[in-house]
Amino acid sequence: MALRGDEEVANKQVILKDYVLSGFPKNSDMNVITSSIKLKLKLSCGCSKKMQPLNGYGVARVLDFGHPDFKKGDLVWGITGWEEYSLITSTRGLFKIEHTDVPLSYYTGILGMPGMAAYCGFYELCSPKKGEHVFVSAASGAMGHLVGQFAKLLGCYVVGSAGSQEKASQPIMSVNHSVWCLLLISLINLKVDLLKNKFGFDEAFNYKEEPDLVATLKRYFPEGIDIYFENVGGKMLDAVLLNMRLHGRIAVCGMISQYNKFDNPDGIHNLINIILKHVRIDGFLVVDYYHLYPKYLEMILPKIREGKSCTWRT
């Protein structure tokens, strides 16, 4: 958000060089450039530049405002440009930060979109109960490791899967004194070992080292799965359907194995188990649950302050 007047300042931006035709974006696909911006609350409706800065969830300080819910100096989190200054024209999904006794970086993680997605998918859609058996795929990701911690706080048995035993890469973050930008393409790559030793999962496995996912899940869940937090799709989902318990629940947050398979997506062959085992499957987008953000804060802030939730500082 910008100041009134016509002051022009330098503005660092993260720009995608070109369309990524295959695979996932890499650091080499992006440039950090410095452009200029006039700090004023006026939006031009003329032709936009071809190479616009990327957008992502971040934390920002309001420098000027044209909305009654915000004032100069307010801290907010939501979708911002990957740049030092942004003109935000829609306040949908933009939240004022009222609690500053915790690190502001938490608002790109447990107190931001990842935390809300984990909370809504697990608590609101799956209605978990103490003692239930919970499986989380992509458990080292932004939402997965939080779901596992929420389940453990509730007293569930939790197993997570990840793509390697040890991942050395770190989250990427662009930081200055007023803006934190979380690059979603590299969210929280953790070690499988960390799921057990740091985040409290009962068990965790590297799915790439398991040739038979059905047998693997049977080994970790001999009595079946009550709740599956779905982040992967494809073969993992197919194997889970054979291991669900009666009246099981599946919250579909993502399907990362399918995002680049538009021409030849993996087929799901075990859908009959949805009927036979009375399984409920809910797909969701976190934006549809933003109205529950105050309720989520009431639940999670006391746990953070008491040290009961192992937050990951993005």
Automatic annotation (TrEMBL):
InterPro entries in the record: ADH-like_C, MDR_fam
Protein name stated in the entry: Alcohol dehydrogenase-like C-terminal domain-containing protein
Location of the Alcohol dehydrogenase-like C-terminal domain: 191-300
Molecular function per GO: 2-alkenal reductase [NAD(P)H] activity
Pfam (any one): ADH_zinc_N
Source organism phylogeny: Eukaryota, Viridiplantae, Streptophyta, Embryophyta, Tracheophyta
